[in-house]
Amino acid sequence: MSSHLDDATYHKQVAAIWRATIIIAVVTVFEVGLALSHYFFFYHHPKAIINVFMVLATLMKAFYIIAEFMHLKYEYRSFIIILTLPLIFLVWLIIALSVEGTFWLRLIQ
Amino acid sequence: MAELLDENVISEHITLPAPNNNEGGEDTPFKVSYGKTMMWFFLLSDAFTFTGFLIAYGAIRMSKTWWPDPNVVFAGMPFLHGVNVPLGLVSIMTTILILSSVFVVRAVIEGHRMNQKGVAFWLFLGILGGVAFLGCQAWEWSHLIHDGMTPFYNVYHAGPEGETIKLALAEKAKTPVSPGPPMFGGSFFGITGFHGLHVSIGVVMNIVALIKTLNGTYQRRGHYEMVEKFGLYWHFVDLVWVFVFLFFYLI
Amino acid sequence: MVTSSTGEHALSMIGAGSHHKETFISKYIFSTDHKMIGKQFLYTGMAWAVIGGLFSVLFRVQLAWPDETFPFLEQIFSNWFDEGHMTPEAYYALVTMHGTIMVFFVLTASLSGTFANFLIPLQIGARDMASPIMNALSYWLFLLSSLIMLASIFLPTGMASAGWTIYPPLSILPQASSGSGMGMTLWLVSMVFFIASQLLAGINYISTVLNLRTKGMTMTRMPLTVWALFFTAIIGLLSFPVLFSAAVLLVFDKGLGTSFYLSDIFIGGKALGYSGGNAILFQHLFWFLGHPEVYIVVLPAMGIVSEILSLSARKPVFGYKAMILSLLGIVVLSFLVWAHHMFVTGMNPFLGSVFALFTLLIAVPSSVKVFNWLTTIWKGNIKMTVAAVFSLGFVSMFISGGLTGIWLGNATVDIQLHDTYFVIGHFHLVMGVAAFFGMFAGIYHWFPKMFGRFMNETLGYIHFFITFIGGYLIFWPMHYLGMSGVPRRYYDFNEFHAFSEYHDMNLLISVSAIVVFAAQFIFVINFFYSMKRGRKSTELNPWKVNTLEWTTPIIPGHGNWPGDLPTVYRWPYDYSKFEDGPDFIPQTVPLTEADIESDKKNLH
Amino acid sequence: MQILLIILAFVLVLVVILQVGKVVELVSVMRDEDERTEDTSNSVGFLFLLSGIVLGLFIAYTSYTEYGKFLPVSASEHGVWIQDLVDISLYITGIVFIITNVLLFYFAYKYRYRRNRKALYFPYNNRIEILWTVIPTLVLTVIIGLGLNKWFKIFSEAPTDAIQIEVTGKQFAWVVRYGGKDNELGKRDFTLSTVENELGVRWKDKVSKDDFLSDEIVIPVNTPVHVNIGALDVIHSFYLPEFRVMMDAVPGIPTKFWFRPTITTEQMREIKKNPEFDYELACNQLCGTGHWNMKKTVRVVTEAEYKKWFSEQKSYYKQNIAKIEGGASVDTDVIAEVNSSKD
């Protein structure tokens, strides 16, 4: 929070932002490309593998947004840990409800 | 009650200083101001809210054998009536929102340089992006509602081979269809609506920041931390969109 | 009143020449002083506790004397009684509201609201919360949500009556229960404000603890109360949002006709148009909040008890770091075990087994805490103040209630015991009575700091012994009922042969409940009487305690410390450290050679 | 009037207590603080110990008198397993309960305040703490291991020879349907639900034609019973305390539970020495104002009795539906096939 930023750091930061932007853009194009290619060319094939790739791509985008745009990468390590560690609860929520969701499908059928 | 006022109680108060939150804590462990800490923890809790919504949608979707194909549902484009561009509009929306987020980061960086004009310029672009995003979303919603989609009714039905067919088209072609899950509309409107609400709040926050920047409030204060805090919120909105985009449009 | 005068005096010296007079309203109503906000939470919580307790007494009356008529109760509660009998509608509404009020308004908002607000800045050496305005706002939102909930009592269609867990479809369909109409709507609206209040408060507590500690107050020198309140805030911050999303989806189902939680409903001879949702989904989302919620309730009490046991025994709390780690362990595990409330909902048996495993693991940090408390008082020199006996009572209740958790967490045993009175007995001991005991201990202990006067000890002891013995008499027999299979939330047991056998036990429970409820008025009277007329506190540190709040003036003004903030040199538990020294060394006393020697020696 | 008197008496008692408190305090304030603390700690410490003893006696006495009643004799195969687990849990937690509580009350009394004593400075000892982290972990692992072993057995697939029963909860009753001669339940379709056909059974199906509804649940002893559980309106819970069976009935999601009854109603009457005893099915999930009243009798009979009873049952379709609709009309009944493949 120093109110004065020297020129070198400034240029470095701006460059980092644009680099992140480009990465996010490329990943997004890749994702949309995957989705559309499935729709146009492989419609009757299962989408599961593509879905995995798209989830990974999205996680990558999320990483760049959090790390660069939200500047978290440059905070103290303990602060990063405190903010990201609780996300394991979400991971467990997601796993548990996914298991339940597929189980409901089995029950209903 | 005056009898309660012992001398010793009063005398303790003589030099009571004004509450000042930046005093003392030489020990802020993260070198992050309390304001930013608060925003971060708010965003953390908001991440839980959104995950709650998304996983509810996910669990419901997983318990279904069939779900409308987003490539068919989200193929409308403004100004291009009748032309199907799968995922066209939403790709534009995603681009707009991410760019808007980038603009706000630039504003934050300019804020660190105490560059009032720079902050105002980039913030303005950021706001423009937000408004454009909301505009696109409004168009998409009205398009879907026009098609007959409601939170409790789904016009996209499963065709004989599992393809997604709009009810009106199916009737025209006399194709037998089985009804699609009504929760498609509910979860789509619910979650994108909740996200849209966040975007709107973010736009308002950015406008407030812009006005204050133009007034020179932050310049006088000596730092642009408020822009940074609002910026964090704005990036979070972007972050959530990335996941909404994934789970509603791509998968 | 003493606070107003001193406060005025103090505040007139604060600030850049703003000499406006502190009026009653700005001092007591729209205050941003964390101590006043803490007291506001306390008063509101006490009012709610009386209402919630009254509700429980009313439905206990129904259970103990199902065949008698109570015309005099009908005179007062004419809505809820019919020809001297409580109506089933009223019974279920009262059960629901008792749970809601006690869990959310009393033990969540009021317990952590009071002590987090009052203690965090005082014990870490801060002038106020990180954002006093947000703090005040949090109280006002809580009050607003309270008033909305209170309004639902007067509805002609009745209060929400789907249980405090508001499981859909019962809570969504007004056809299924009259309370699920307007009553449930108000419940949901109230809860939205409540969640907002909790989030504002939680964010504030966390940033205050992280950022506003005074010089020398490292994280590992914080008293266990602050640690517990800090973890409580984190749990609240992470779990309430999920309740929010669950509630919003419920509102959609109720108002918009979506079917997130509803599917294939045939009621009142009509098939409703809901399709494709899942009622169990709500339970998952609800218990993702609901289970951490019980730790929100009990963690502050644990912190308070650790603190009070140590200072009463004039002995450092045993295993300070283990206490923190076990708190952390509880926090982490509390988020991984929610579905143990749902073993018999037809969930995936494999998933159930994982949840059962995690659930039993929670017993480990809990048992570490219990053993550490026992070691803390071992070879101590225990001053049996009222706060101390309440803390000891807490430990006993926590043991008794906690051990039955091992039964319930075991999924296989839960098949028999789920949703029976066994569960009621278990959680009332462990998070009802125990949490209340922590709260009472805290109030008796910090009363001099709050009001500059002591509470009457004799009344305190009477209050304690009635509540302690009464608490066991109420909740212990419930285990017997539960094991024989008596389900919870039954309006009348006479319908079933197996359940009606326990009438004598029900009678005992109800009579004890009435006595215990009446005994709480001893506390209320003691509280308000002592506020005005109690023995005055004349020393800065009447209990001879190490923590920072006792270095402030007897009644601190807004800003807490005159002059500079105190500097901290040591952990808060240096009691009886040296054979020949004083039996307590406040945190503000610099370390000496002897201290360093002693610390080395104790480093095992 | 009555209420006024009660309140008056209550207030009077409170005032008396308050006065006592005031007087005691006035007396005590005059004394030296240390001496006063020692005296109160003495008497309160003693009272605390006494209350512990009283509570201990209460717990011991009631668990002695109530023992016969709690945990009813288990009437199913897996019920015995649960019984064993409960016993193990009871021993382990009981021992811990007694030790910790005794220590608590004893320490509180033994180490009450003495003016001339100093507490022991004992801040931590990692070895002890590791010890009482590890031991509970091991004990709990054993408990959970034993528990999960049975858990998976209880929720295993039902044997193929199990009798198929369907129990559907509604406000506020249970509807019991048997699979009939083919021991197969007719499929249900929610879109067919009407007042006459609440369950929405597809009577068109051949398998549904021999299904019958029953006023009580009758099951043969020593034969596996597979209960298909469902609900029409809100969540109910299928609870048979003696059989240790509990499973929620959720609208829209079929759940199931299978068990093997081992004691007939007659035998249980002898065990309980209660000639009027009946197994009862209760609802265990709050389902509205009649929640406490959802009773259904369960009769466990011998194989022969069951066969006799079974042969007396008449197909619901023939009894009720065919009459209304006429045999032919049912078959031509237009049921939208599309609807049957509901999500």
What's the pLDDT, averaged over the residues of chain A? 88
Rg estimate of chain B, integer Å: 25 Å
Helicity level of chain A, as a percent range?
over 70%
How do the helices and strands follow one another from N- to C-terminus of chain B? Answer: HHHHHEEHHHH
- Helix count of chain B, per DSSP? 9
Estimate the global geometry of chain A from the Cα principal axes: flat
Low-confidence residue ranges of chain B: 1-27
Distance linking N and C termini of chain A: 58 Å
The total domain count of chain A is 2
> Biggest interface in this structure?
C-D, 137 and 131 residues
Portion of residues in beta strands of chain B equals under 5%
Task: Describe what this molecule looks like in 3D.
The complex is a heterotetramer of chains A (109), B (251), C (604) and D (343). In chain A, 80% of the residues lie in helices and 0% in strands. Chain A has 109 residues and is mainly alpha-helical. In chain A, helix 1 (7-41) runs antiparallel to helix 2 (48-69). The longest helix of chain A is centred in the first third of the chain and has 35 residues, at 7-41. Chain B has 251 residues and is an all-alpha fold. A two-stranded antiparallel ribbon of chain B has the order 1-2. Chain C has 3 domains: 34-222, Up-down Bundle (Cytochrome C Oxidase, Chain A); 292-531, Cytochrome C Oxidase, Chain A, CATH 1.20.210.10; 538-604, no CATH class. A two-stranded antiparallel ribbon of chain C has the order 1-2. In chain C, strands 3-4 form a two-stranded antiparallel sheet. By secondary structure, chain D is an alpha+beta fold. Helix content of chain D is 48%, strand content 16%. Chain D has helices at residues 2-29, 33-66, 77-110, 126-154, 265-272, 303-312, 316-325, 327-332, 337-340; strands at residues 163-170, 173-178, 212-214, 217-220, 225-231, 236-240, 245-249, 255-259, 279-283, 296-301. In chain D, a hairpin with a 4-residue loop joins strand 6 (236-240) and strand 7.
